[in-house]
Amino acid sequence: MTTHLRTLTRPPLHVRARLTFGLLTAAALLAVALVATAPPGAAAAPPGAAAARTAPLTTDGPGVGAPWVVTLGDSYISGEAGRWAGASNRDHRRADALGRTAYLDNPDGTAELIPRCHRASSAEAYIGGGINGLNLACSGATTATSTGSPFKPGIDFYDGTAGQGQALMLQEAAATRNVRMVVVSIGGNDFGFADVVQTCVVNFLTSPSWWKNYCHDDGSVARNFTPENVAQVRARVTQALGNVATAMSNAGYTTDQWTLVVQTYPSPVPDGSGFRYAESGYTRQTVGGCGLWNRDADWANATALPTINGALLGAAADVGLPNVRTLDMTHAFDGKRLCETGVGLYEEVGLADWRAPGAVDRTEWVNQIRTVSTIGDSPYYVQESLHPSYWGQLAMRNCLRQVWNDGAPRSGSCTVGDLGTARLTSSGEPRMHLTPLP
């Protein structure tokens, strides 16, 4: 996400009167991308695709005792939107799984350590089973620290009055803990997605279905995906991953004592043909909170996400470390995405709330795009838009636990288990499948 957001261009008056969802932050569209094909510049094969560890790491790092998993990066791993389990336009309490303390991560649970980092208690870092979790990610982070207001720590060694960079935080934490796995999700905000999503939603709301104004062909959008910009972002992600390795080395670790997991981004919306709301009228946004034209959603599937994830995979190869694994989340939410056919709002699927049997299978795992519904004393934040919600966060946690693999980390691609009859595990998470990388 970006540090500052601009107000959406005002839609027609009759739309403004009904508008209940909208504007995004950068990490929000950090997922307005979808299905992965191999983009230009991607690694020939994801790190770890051919050789997963077959035995657990055998030596402890400087810290002894129970192992730790540490997560670094942006909103897609910090837990943004992890408060909400599905959605209702009638009563927010139907979907409020974690309540108003969802993002309060200081020791006594009364405030955020870094305002608006939104490190939710449902975040994937906390895989349990005797494994400690530490979440250092921050919603809105890019590869480099931003010292503006609010402060956004990047994956670097920044140390100033505003705070520390995530690499420095990791270095200090790892020196006294037995850190065995570091998971990184970063790069989406470096592609400038707040502006991209803003453009896409504005174009949907301000053009009629018989004269669609698409966003994917706007110059302001296209320049984010030029070969030159993709190469620059890939280089910045490579540097960030190198900073992680430096932090662990400075803390006293060798590469055979810990594993770096590079995590890609999931698809948040279906292809155009998979939306359950028609393009005509404004229902797609005012009811579903997914104001995108079909062709823009298709572009996100075919171009945006593959390009972003390709840059991450390329960086994972470029960093040249022997202890790198890959967690591919591209299709982790397929069948459960925002406005996708087959799932719905609580009032649409006839369920009372998120505790109802079957809620995990029949409601969305991605949060709505919101605008005016965040005004005043609303419980919603604009920056929660288009992020994995409570079910999505727990699904990613289930994937990460399988990557941990009892201390022998492995690569894999994650998908919904038993799609259409999704079930919860004994730990309350959606059951996911981790399969070998292509």
Oligomeric state of the chains present here? single chain
Order of helices and strands: HHEHEEEHEHHHEHHEHHHEE
Overall domain count: 1
Total E-strand runs? 9
The largest pleated sheet is described as: 7 strands, mixed
Distance from first to last alpha carbon? 30 Å
Shape: globular
User: If you average the pLDDT, what whole number results?
Assistant: 88
Q: CATH H level: which superfamily?
A: SGNH hydrolase
Q: What is the strand arrangement across the widest sheet?
A: 2-1-5-6-7-8-9
Query: Beta-strand percentage?
Result: 5-15%
Question: What structural category arises from helix and sheet content?
Answer: alpha/beta
The CATH architecture is 3-Layer(aba) Sandwich
CATH topology: Rossmann fold
CATH C-level: Alpha Beta
| Tally of alpha and pi helices | 12
Radius of gyration: 20 Å
GO molecular function, one term: hydrolase activity, acting on ester bonds
Signal peptide: 1-44
Organism: Promicromonospora citrea
Disulfide bonds: 200-215
Describe the protein in words.
The chain is of the alpha/beta class. It has a single domain (13-49, 58-435), classed as SGNH hydrolase (Rossmann fold), CATH 3.40.50. The protein is 26% helix and 10% strand. It has helices at 13-16, 26-29, 75-78, 166-174, 193-205, 219-222, 227-250, 283-286, 294-318, 346-349, 359-362, 390-404, and strands at 67-73, 132-135, 159-160, 163-164, 178-185, 259-263, 324-328, 412-416, 432-435. The strands form two sheets. The chain has a seven-stranded mixed beta sheet with strand order 2-1-5-6-7-8-9, sandwiched between helices. Strands 3-4 form a two-stranded antiparallel ribbon. Strand 3 and strand 4 (163-164) form a beta hairpin. Helix 4 (166-174) packs parallel to helix 7 (227-250).
